[in-house]
Amino acid sequence: MLEISDLSARVAGKEILTGVNLKVNAGEVHAIMGPNGSGKSTLAQVLAGREDYEVTRGSVTFEGRDLLSMRAEERARAGLFLGFQYPVEIPGVNNVYLLKAALNAKRKAAGEPEVDAYEFLALIRQKMKFMQMSEAFLSRGVNEGFSGGEKKRNEVLQMLVLEPKLAILDETDSGLDIDALKVVSTGVNSLRGPQRAVVLVTHYQRLLDYVIPDQVHVLSGGRIVKSGDKTLAQELERRGYDWVMESRVA
Amino acid sequence: MNAALRSFEAQWRARTPDALQPIREQAMQRFLKLGLPVQRDETWRYTDLRSLAAQSFATAACAFNGALADEPLSLVDAEQRASTVVLVNGCPPALASIPAIDGITINSIRELAKVDPSFVARFFEPASDDDQRRWVLLNTALFTDGLYLKISTAVSAPLVILHLSSGEADQAAHPRIIIDVLPGSSATIIEHHVTRGDAAPLSNSNTHISLGTDAQIEHYRVYAAGAGASQLDALDIHQCARSQCKQFTIGLGGSFIRSSLEAHLSQPGASLESYSLLVGHEDRHLDCVNIVTHAAPDTRSRQTARAIASDVSRVIFNSKVIVKAGAAHSDSQQSCRGLLLSPEAEIDTRPQLEIHADEVKCAHGATTGRLDPDMLFYLLSRGLDRETAQSLLVYAFLADVLSGMSVSSARSAIESALISQLPDSQLLRKFR
């Protein structure tokens, strides 16, 4: 589904990614872990199409298409979803308006008719209930005045409505209490399926107790330095990131 | 002495003295002594009046010969408003023609001054050297007539005052309005400034609002003059104890607009909310000055300004809060956000504070920039196309001010007029 080879990227003139290689197949859940500043969020943003992040080398294909030649909005419509680490507040843009516009953009690209208003509201209500969110959120501005946890739930809600083929969740677990973490994990697990893939970018192993990954990768210095199964996450939790760096030197 | 000053002096000499002569005399002498403001003057630093000063102006006539079609001029649906009073170049209609409205008494300022000059004089500020008041001096000296409105109960339907400017560009008019809201009374007043015809006289208007104890007003001034028109407008607000003023200043017409607001929170508990929506379009120059004085304890003011500039326009928003000695527990906020939609456009904002009291809460913030790239990326990453995402953010930018308007039909008419001056207006209409 996603194939990244030798991907390097610069942000504000600074080399952040230095040759990332990663292959994610349909049906898989991958976790990308790593210390702060290792390039995890940059990787997520580059994949979603942030323009001020400059790709200097390498290639990315998404379902056989050249992802890097697509604009952010085209990537979204093709089924790629980024759950932001820090979802931005957009006062004045209604939450439910955005959800509807996003869903319709995707449907239009797939040659499907726009969603019927009644059908749409029924869908939203069902997903909100699942995410244990109050319907009061619908009429508010996008993320406006939301707590950190509410913003993350809103990201997962958008993901559930849009049903992406590939979801990249950038530290969706950070800042969540244990109850919210369970709700968010249930949301992510509900999306798992043979046709879909999930990439979890996370600093801690905590989320991986609830969303069990097929593969775990450690990103350090802008490249993947170690890969393994779910036990790698547990080992990292026990021994810390220094252990990976040391073993790499050795 | 420049041509404009000479012509104003000639008009002054040509007029017949009336009951307000002493006030007018004082104002004119002060005006002639000080002259037109120049960019050295504090509140005029962004506006160059030299080409205006080089012109001569004659008095604009009171008559309007065209047809006053109601529909295209109307900001408020007929069934929602109490009435519309049309002033042509500042001259009120025959008072007999104004329908009676429960709770609002409407008089001609001149007629009222004949009967009780000292009463009318209470609504004229003392002659001042302050540069932001220069054109008000001229208005006081030369205004032909104007309206005095007395609000004596709670009036719910909005009253529309339509300022129609009609004539030639080498003429000037000085419309004057006094709104006297008696204690415990309330009203909604909408002043709508429009022009008819290709050319229009220079309009130099002044409105005085006096709010008694526990009085309330929602006041709009909407500048919607045609391209090429020049307008100077000053608003003075005086607030007694616990009075509440909600004021909207909407700039979306004309080529040159200078708009000022001076509010005096003179007694405890007085509260002001001022909203400015300033739209720079084509080569418009829109200069807005707010000066809010907290002169009593426990007074509150909120100023919210949103400026959008496209094409080669320039928008200026200067706001100042003055907290006088003794005005303890004053609470003020100034928030100004500017949005630049073209590389040639310019927005200047300057929030200022002058505090002479202890224990006050004064916050201010000003930001100007292009569309927020993080917001834009967020919307794009959800699949919205770029044009829609940009328009949505422009629309959202205006929402703060628009959502405060309680006259729904005015809000919707203003929204529609604003949108027509923004890029991608077709698209923007979808979000309404």
Explain what the structure shows.
The complex is a heterodimer of chains A (250) and B (432). Chain A has 8 helices and 12 strands. Chain A is globular. In chain A, 37% of the residues lie in helices and 29% in strands. Chain A has one domain: Rossmann fold, CATH 3.40.50.300. Chain A starts with a strand and ends with a helix. Chain A has a 6-stranded mixed beta sheet, with helices on both faces. Chain A is an alpha/beta fold. The mean pLDDT of chain A is 90. Chain A has helices at residues 40-48, 72-77, 95-109, 117-130, 148-162, 178-191, 230-239, 241-249; strands spanning 2-11, 14-24, 29-33, 53-62, 65-66, 80-83, 90-94, 141-142, 166-170, 197-202, 215-220, 223-228. The mean pLDDT of chain B is 91. In chain B, helix 2 (21-34) packs antiparallel against helix 6 and helix 7 packs across helix 8. Chain B has 432 residues and is of the alpha/beta class. Chain B folds into 2 domains: 3-267, no CATH class; 371-432, no CATH class. In chain B, the strands form 2 sheets. In chain B, strands 1, 3, 4, 6, 7, 9, 11, 13, 15, 17 and 19 form an 11-stranded mixed beta sheet that branches. Chain B has a 9-stranded parallel beta sheet with strand order 2-5-8-10-12-14-16-18-20, covered by helices on one side. Chain B starts with a helix and ends with a helix. Chain B has helices at residues 3-14, 21-34, 50-53, 109-115, 117-121, 134-142, 373-380, 386-402, 408-419, 425-428; strands spanning 58-59, 83-88, 104-108, 146-151, 159-166, 171-173, 176-181, 186-196, 202-211, 216-223, 230-239, 244-251, 256-265, 271-280, 285-294, 300-309, 314-323, 331-340, 346-355, 361-369.
